[in-house]
Amino acid sequence: MPREEQGITSDRFSVIPRSLIFINRGNQVLLLRGAPNKRLWANRLNGIGGHVERGEDILSSARRELFEEAGLDEVDLWLCATAIIDAGQATGICIFMFRGEFPGGEVRHSAEGKLEWIDFDSLGDYPLVEDLQIILPVLMTMTRGDPLLAFHYSYDDQNHLQVSQG
Fold it and tell me: Does 10 fall in a domain?
């Protein structure tokens, strides 16, 4: 199909693609504590990830982000969930969430923040990015081959995050 037949018009909802990666080591998950000087999520724990760059597919983006932010390049990643974030604007965000098992070796911190191994059962004791409190317990029960999960994020009238699972 030619590019002009893709149906891209300014009146349609569009999304910015991002990747988000969770690496497991036994009963722990590797999370990134945002650097104190970050505009978003400073000192809060989040998965590893970022924007998809032009010319990248989503898996290549996830692998690049994992290497840039943790120094890991031999992780077998699998897509476990997607999330559409609708913040009430013409453009939203689409997050592709990956899981993988830690292959061993050293993780390395980056300018994005410090990496921390967190026990699944103590996630509530840490300053997680808001959506992780909802989705991470679900994602951590998944195994490779489970059906893909789909989340939708929106905001209510008081600007509180609402997360639903399809």
Answer: no
